[in-house]
Amino acid sequence: MVTFKDFRNNVKPNWCPGCGDFSVQAAIQRAAANLEIQPHELAVISGIGCSGRISGYINSYGLHGIHGRALPIAQGLKMANRNLKVIASGGDGDGFAIGMGHTIHSIRRNVDITYIVMDNQIYGLTKGQTSPRSAAGFVTKSTPGGAIEPSLKPLEVALSAGATFVAQSFSTDLKELTAIIEAGMNHNGFAFINVFSPCVTYNKINTYDWFKENITKLSSIEGYDSTNRAQAMATVMEHEGLVTGIIYQDEETPSYQNLVNGYSEEPLNQQEMMIEEKDLQELMKEFM
Amino acid sequence: MLHQLSWKVGGQQGEGIESTGEIFSTAMNRLGYHLYGYRHFSSRIKGGHTNNKINVRTSVVHTIPDDLDILVAFDQETIDVNYKELTSEGVILADAKFKPVKPEDCPATLYVVPFTEVAAELGTTLMKNMVAIGATAALLNLEDEVFQSVVDEIFGRKGETVVQKNMTAIAQGHELMNGMLGDNIGKFELEPADGKHRLFMIGNEAIALGALAAGTRIMAAYPITPASEIMEYLIKKLPKFGGTVIQTEDEIAAATMAIGANYGGIRSFTASAGPGLSLMMEAIGLSGMTEQPLVIVDTQRGGPSTGLPTKQEQSDLMAMLYGTHGEIPKVVIAPSTGEEAFYDTIQAFNIAEELQLPVILLSDLQLSLGKQTVEPFDYSKIEIRRGKLELGELPEAEDKAYFKRFEVTEDGVSTRVVPGQKHGIHHVTGVEHDETGKPSEAAGNRKAQMDKRFRKLDHVNFNMPVFKNTPHEEADVLLVGFNSTKGAIEEIQPMLNEEGIKTNHAHIRLIHPFPAVEMKELIDNAKKVIVVENNATGQLANVMKMNIGAHDKIISLVKYDGTPFLPKELLGRVKELLTDGNI
Ligand SMILES: Cc1ncc(C[n+]2csc(CCOP(=O)(O)OP(=O)(O)O)c2C)c(N)n1
Ligand code: SF4
Ligand SMILES: [Mg+2]
């Protein structure tokens, strides 16, 4: 039996006390244990930011890469070993500013990995500048007169980019968050999960209390159908993105791996590398 | 009978110029001649002058010549742009349709042949290129049958009638030309070739095939000239081997995806040109710092910025040696021929895994796109070396103890395990880290890890870092180059020797870590060293000075107008330098 404790290591996180990221870490550990995977069968790939440190705090394989590039690294890893459970994670700056191109195209590509954004609507690690998720008017070190750009709407973006799994959660709601991450990891395709993970040090606006007041749980909306993209979009817009739960899931669309022509059923990293002599002869013939 | 012939076809881009050159050269390759082709093309897709110059020889050749024997012209521009290359014995075969005019100072003979008209009578003007091939056959005294197998392959799927029509077009062109040539039939007849079966391919195809033979299964790439053929070739071939090419959203994704796949335990790579390499710099540092193998092909083209996207240049060298912030060990390899491109690509993958670092395989446009004769690759020479990769069962570890993935060792290389392996869990980070991968800023650890990483460069296992043709113990001049300048240097070395200038030639294949000992010896044994390169600032010359000194001996010979070095041109410039009081 695996328990969440198996996914704990002996590294002490250097997050501020009260940082929302602690619960995200706990939820990943619980979700992995609930899925009964072994620590060595999981890889967490993270970007750079306070949030990016998460891969170092979980007892699993982990790679802490460069700012904004967790997604391509995670996809490359998954393609090399399709048996591995791969989670990519990082901050809102990581995924929606510098890494936005990868986010959109990863959603389109639909490789079977789970992407968890720890959204604190601020740049934590660099000590409090505006993020694409900061609300208009938000005063930060880099927007002393208040942010003049509108806040990015990640759920709407994901839905319109063709996501096959879109969810959102709040880091204090460990039960819901764990269930969502589990569902994301079980989803055959790219699972996009945005998590409100408050920064207690640099974001005094979007606090725990603020979220508690403003969030609507999808489970409280009667008849909400998470297989209906139009309804998902309408609901997200109606609530200005402040909903939690599985917003949309499409289980019909095959994942990237299922579509790649000739892609080996056996994990590529277990395959013989050397081609056969007759293969080389055949390949050369085309040039003769 | 001739031992060498130079032939060129030109016209408007998108008009079938490529296929004319293709059919002629494939047939010549099958007869056993050695070929080297270079295409002149613009960034436009349709329209704009394009030409394809092919050097045909009975012996090995790696360059196009300065001169031209036969020019096949489908428009007046082709004549105007290219006639200066023609010798006085040369011939222009021009389509009557555009009413060709021979420039006054053109010494060659103009034959006006109704290519288009003959083709139209046979049913379609598209076959004008076949008529031109027939006319060429008359000048070379070739049997039409030598084109049969090529025509079969190209038109076979369109049915026997189409094949027949094309062969008829060749026959009519041949006959027509015979009638016009009179005594000059077979004027350019070549000595018979050895009939050996060799490959005729561009450097990019050799690189792609090398990657496949090296065991690559995932390539991540973003299209760019002159690298795209690598991904285009592999997307056709990889599915048969269980793998694929992923066209990413940009080069940052391409390089980092390749890193992720290597981290997962397979061989993955990317290929691009200068602009893409600029975007990959941070990823190269990540590979170096996290000790994840990574192979990147850089097919150099004219820079900076968008520069000259379809022209030859070798100006990325310094960026490839020193690019990415901070200091990481890196290996830079520069093949110069199709054969080297294939085997060096395999070497690049081996070194990347053995030393767990980024390896840059440097090519240039002339090598990447120039189509050349290549000896068939020898299967027995393909070797896959993965270094200290431990994929077997690992010893049980203490609870939660991390595997020492970055253990400080004598050769700097640590045992490598990959995700999915039991008892192998460790952390990987671009932050400075300890032996288990955990972040650490401790001064002692920092120094130990930096030293460990750099020690790896003392263990590069590369076969033949320098290609040498050094007949003289004491040379008047040593000619040095990298990548595709080899052909032109090869060509002029015997000419210089014949003139009494004792000339040695060294072509550097492993540029970083620089083969200083080997090169120093060669430099010591020469009065002067001329470094030939396609860039403006003499980058290789500077690298040599940095590594060896010899400032008083090293002379830079550069060309950066977008065109490759031609042998006679190079000969003239070398002699000029040597007479300028330099020797
Ligand atoms: C290429 C690059 N640019 C800038 C930085 C500096 N930097 C590190 S983290 C970060 C933003 C962090 O914000 P976010 O991604 O939201 O993560 P958080 O710290 O809030 O969890 C920045 C700008 C960097 N590491 N790399
Ligand atoms: S600065 Fe903010 S995001 Fe970073 S650890 Fe502290 S609370 Fe968390
Ligand atoms: Mg943030």
Q: Remind me, CATH topology of the largest domain in chain B?
A: Pyruvate-ferredoxin Oxidoreductase, domain 3
Highest CATH level, the class of the largest domain in chain B: Alpha Beta
Count of discrete domains of chain A: 1
Would you identify the CATH H-level superfamily of chain A?
A: Thiamin diphosphate (ThDP)-binding fold, Pyr/PP domains
Poorly predicted regions of chain B are: none
The domain count of chain B comes to 4
Q: What structural class do helix, strand and pairing data of chain A support? A: alpha/beta
- Major β-sheet of chain A, in short? 8 strands, mixed
Q: What is the H-and-E element order of chain A?
A: HEEHEHHEHEHEHEHEHH
Query: Which structural class do the helices and strands of chain B define?
Result: alpha/beta
Outline of chain A: globular
Secondary structure: number of strands of chain A? 8
CATH topology of chain A: Rossmann fold
CATH architectural category of chain A: 3-Layer(aba) Sandwich
**Distance, first to last CA of chain B:** 39 Å
Identify the quaternary structure here: heterodimer
- Count all strands of chain B and give the number: 21
Distance between the termini of chain A: 59 Å
Specify the CATH homologous superfamily of the largest domain in chain B: Pyruvate-ferredoxin oxidoreductase, PFOR, domain III
Small-molecule binders here are: thiamine diphosphate, iron/sulfur cluster, magnesium ion
- CATH hierarchy class name of chain A: Alpha Beta
